[in-house]
Write a structure and sequence with these properties.
The structure holds two protein chains of two kinds. By secondary structure, chain A is of the alpha+beta class. Chain A has 20 helices and 15 strands. In chain B, a hairpin with a 2-residue loop joins strand 1 and strand 2. Classes of the chains: A alpha+beta, B mainly alpha.
């Protein structure tokens, strides 16, 4: 038994119901009483040996047959100790209430709202418990509960809160109905309607998005302004919510891979990678070395694409339009390589459970080498336009500053966290693929401002190029997919010729494979941050519950904290610096 | 009879200048897209006509036939008036710009200067005055749209125009001291005889030139000073609610303003229609057109500079713009005045 679990059980003999190490990877799990969660969370956060300073993710699982129907799971991560813990609490159906942990981890704010929204669990003491992904006046229940049909309840025309397209629009006295006036001004609530004197009159409520040139998709931001200065920024998410987690509960494990492409559509390969790694972890399946190298190379190519895309759009938001076109020029080269590799350019689907779909061809390796030869010169071109540009410095230095402590507390990961000076990179902390076999460094910033995050991302592109080069040099010969006939179908050529292989193929694709009963959380370093998949398996061919830990969603939880006090012009800089992709954020 | 001849000649000159300016605006819309494209490794418009040269015509037709929308909450009088207020001052300024040599013809007893519409002795003051009126179009357009983004754009425009117009005015005072006149013709004439006589080099108006160029970029709301428009922050700033021809008016005004400030810059600092060498190479009447050609080259140099800056620099933030205007540009312009005044006083 892990020392930490013993310590926890001894410290809270009444509140901790059970501690155990689960699965082949010995995940630490602690089952606790719901009422004691804040106390235990505080202990786990403060205790120097536990030091769980980050709440990676939280979710709820619905077990309708059980006595205590809901299980709330907190996925904790300790950066100094580099270990993880799953904290679980069971809640009954008639009173699904649990105290909030926002007092311990500020990042829990959005995560708890999501659990409330999708599973209907109330968090007592939460400062702002509203729906987050579904519309605020959504009245049809909680979508992730098992008794909610996958196809949804009703359709567009049956929801009274959505405007009908076939009827003339109802006349409205003003754009905002009277009773919804200023719903974002929490302080004004509970006061008689005519007491306006509590707030100064100069404040301007500006609605930014969901249709706005700089919101990178369909993010809506309600800004309270004093002149051009931001007093409060309230992100409104969910315009791109497609219920991927619910959909995945109805799909076999292989069928989910294409759905992960559509999460972060800028870096679809990374999502594929994160997902197949989670399934492999669940299956405890070893991947052949050549496949690991290929996966690493492709993931790093995707990281370069993601960062190029980010650099272009961030620069465009700030007004430097040339960088945008130049980065897209380089991105195009890599997309062509992807097209050679798997036939697609945007929603790529190359990773397979247990390996990859096809091998590198010599032509592809040669093209990739040619790209790597010219890439440093191109990076230098961007540097010439931006790195020492006075206006660029003025627009990014000391803008959207977040301290290392706050960044960790909000659950920020990836370049956002590293820009604040925390050298946390999952590729180093929990190595996977071929990352532990090549030489590379984790760039970290100092001040946690937009410029540092810009610098970190540019440096990461250089490191990625370095990783790809080494991987190509070291790449061993061998199979590209694991030898596990229970899980992996035979190669297509054999299927077309050989009767037994055809049957084998048919069985896997009609019945799926059945991983052992259990749970697993597996995180990967996506260009945006920590992309994690939490899968609960009931032993069937479909996941019982799948939760996606999306870095963009967690980062937007810190938006208000980072935006307050800056000017309207900085809002677009802050949007850009997170590198949000709403497909991943809203899922 | 005299009046008739004078009026006829003036109308003819106005017609030529207006047509030239409008054609230049059309050329600029294409040139800007082409120049930016080449700087950004792409081709720009290629579909309409060979190499996309008919693109401005297609754009014009499109804008002309677009639906004209006035938002429900807008003040329609000011909303319709704003593009006109923007456009007219932009065109009116060209009346005092000398395009070619200062020659005079006798036509039925009336003296006519063919290369300038009207040589009034306060030419530069006239240009500055009308440039300020143009700003009202932006402010009113932003206010009348009844849109928060437009309002913010309009407010930014007001602040920006006030700050930078001051700098434009102060930057050219050095030139005025050297020329001893407010007439653009006189200023140009004083710079005759080769590039070492130009105000930029011979008059050592380098600070004034730099301040003027930067401030005029700001005054025309171009990157990196396009805060009133700021497409990534304020959607399109004061133009957010405008469409069709009203939008085209604002657009034309912006480009006409660019041409105007380029014309003024070349007259004030680069000798206007004077070639960089003394006299002209071509004899007689062709020599006049040599001057016009040199003037055109200088104006296009400035216009190219606008595009070049746009392709290179990010946008400033509002507070940085203000700080830059008041704390950097203004002291520089004042220093330029003081130095020029002292030097001129000592040398005379």
């Amino acid at each position: 038994m892990h020392a930490l679990l013993t310590r926890l059980a001894e410290r809270f003999p009444d509140a901790v119901l059970a501690v155990r190490e689960e699965g082949p990877y010995k995940d630490l799990v602690a089952q606790v009483k719901p009422a004691a969660v804040p106390e235990i969370a505080r202990f786990l956060h403060d205790d120097p040996e536990a030091a769980f300073d980050m709440l990676s993710d939280m979710l709820a699982v619905d077990y309708p047959e059980d006595e205590d129907r809901f299980e709330v799971i907190y996925l904790l991560k300790s950066l100094p100790r580099n270990h993880r813990l799953r904290l679980k609490a069971r809640l009954p159906e008639d009173d699904p209430t649990i105290p909030t942990v926002t007092t311990v981890w500020k990042g829990a704010n959005f995560l708890e709202r999501e659990v409330f929204d999708l599973m209907g669990i109330t968090f007592a003491g939460h400062p702002d418990l509203r729906r987050i992904l579904m519309p605020e006046d959504y009245d049809e229940g909680y979508p992730l509960r098992k008794d909610f049909p996958t196809e949804g309840r009703g359709w567009r025309s049956t929801f009274p809160f959505l405007p009908r397209l076939d009827e003339p629009a109802a006349p409205m006295a003003s754009e905002v109905p009277e009773d919804q006036h200023r719903p974002f001004l929490k302080e004004a609530e509970g006061l008689p309607k005519d007491t306006k004197a509590v707030r100064r009159q100069e404040e301007l409520l500006l609605n930014m998005g969901p249709q706005h040139p700089a919101t990178h998709g369909v993010l809506r931001m309600v800004l309270e302004l004093e002149g051009e200065r931001i007093v409060k920024a309230t992100p409104d998410l969910g315009y791109l919510h497609r219920g991927v987690e619910k959909l995945c509960e109805g799909l076999a494990y292989q069928q989910i891979i294409p759905h992960t492409d559509r999460l972060d559509y800028v870096c679809s390969m990374t999502n594929n990678y994160a997902y197949v790694r989670a399934v492999e972890k669940l299956l405890n399946l070893a991947v052949p070395p050549r496949a690991e190298y290929i996966r690493t190379v492709v993931a790093e190519m995707q990281r370069i694409i993601g960062h190029l895309f980010w650099l272009g759009t961030q620069a465009l938001d700030i007004g430097a339009m040339t960088v945008f076109f130049w980065t897209f020029r380089e991105r195009e080269v890599l997309l062509d390589i992807f097209e050679k590799l798997c036939g697609a350019r945007l929603t790529l689907n190359y990773y397979r459970i247990g390996g990859v779909d096809s091998d590198f061809t010599p032509d592809l390796v040669q093209r990739l080498g040619a790209f790597l030869d010219t890439f440093p010169a191109h990076l230098h071109e961007y540097d010439e336009l931006l790195l020492t540009n006075r206006i660029w410095l003025a627009r990014t230095k000391h803008v959207a500053v977040i301290s290392a402590e706050d960044a960790v507390n909000f659950g920020c990961t990836g370049p956002v966290l590293r820009g604040s000076g925390v050298a946390y990179d999952i590729r180093k902390a929990e190595p996977y693929g071929a990352y532990d076999k090549v030489e590379w460094e984790v760039p970290v910033g100092k001040n946690g401002d937009t410029y540092d995050r810009y610098w970190v991302r540019l440096e990461e592109m250089r490191q990625s190029a370095k990783i790809i080069r080494q991987c190509l040099a070291q790449m061993p010969e061998g199979p590209i997919i694991a030898d596990a006939p229970q899980i992996i179908p035979p190669p297509k050529q054999k299927v077309m010729r050989d009767m037994e292989s055809l049957i084998h193929h048919f069985i896997i694709f009609t019945q799926g494979f059945k991983p052992p009963k259990g749970e697993t959380y597996c995180s990967s370093e996506a260009p945006k941050g920590e992309l994690g998949f939490f899968i609960v398996s009931d032993g069937g061919p479909k996941p019982y519950r799948m939760k996606i830990r999306s870095p963009s969603f967690v980062h937007l939880g810190a938006f208000d904290h980072m935006a307050r006090g800056y000017l309207i012009a900085d809002i677009v800089t802050i949007f850009g610096t997170y590198d949000v992709v709403m497909g991943e954020c809203d899922r | 009879m005299d009046m008739l001849v004078f009026a006829g000649a003036s109308v003819a000159k106005i017609a030529v200048v207006m047509v030239t300016v409008l054609i230049t605006v059309a050329i600029l819309t294409l040139a800007e897209r082409k120049v930016l494209s080449w700087m950004q490794d792409r081709m720009g418009p290629m579909e309409v006509g060979p190499y996309g040269i008919l693109q401005p015509i297609a754009d014009g037709i499109k804008l002309f036939f677009k639906e004209d929308i006035i938002p429900a909450g807008a003040n329609w009088v000011l909303f319709s008036l704003a593009p006109i207020i923007s456009l007219i001052p932009a065109f009116i300024g060209f009346a005092v710009v000398p395009y070619g040599p200062n020659i005079e013809y006798e036509l039925y007893g009336v003296t006519i200067k063919p290369f300038i519409i009207s040589d009034i002795n306060i030419g530069i003051l006239y240009v500055l005055a009308f440039a300020s009126i143009g700003a009202y179009g932006v402010i009113l357009g932003g206010w009348a749209s009844n849109n928060k983004y437009s309002l913010l754009g309009g407010l930014r425009a007001a602040a920006q125009v006030i700050s930078y117009e001051l700098n434009v005015g102060l930057a050219i005072i050095g030139v005025l001291i050297l020329a001893g006149s407010l007439s653009l013709v006189t200023i140009a004439e004083k710079q005759a005889g080769g590039f070492w006589h130009w105000n930029l080099i011979g008059g050592l108006q380098i600070i004034g030139f730099v301040v003027y160029v930067i401030s005029s970029v700001a005054e025309t709301n171009r990157l990196p000073f396009d805060l009133p428009e700021a497409d990534s922050e304020l959607v399109a700033g004061w133009m957010t609610e405008y469409s069709g021809m009203r939008f085209a008016f604002f657009f034309m005004a912006e480009y006409a303003n660019m041409i105007l400030v380029s014309c003024i810059a070349s007259v004030l600092f680069l000798g206007g229609y004077h070639a960089p060498y003394p006299g002209t190479l071509l004899p007689g009447i062709l020599g006049y057109f040599e001057g016009v050609a040199w003037f055109t080259v200088k104006v296009y140099f400035f216009l190219f500079l606008f595009f070049w800056i746009r392709a290179t620099l990010p946008r400033l933030r509002y507070d940085q713009l203000m700080r830059f205007g008041w704390k950097v540009m203004l002291p520089l312009a004042l220093a330029n005045i003081v130095i020029t005044a002292i030097v001129v006083y000592v040398l005379r």
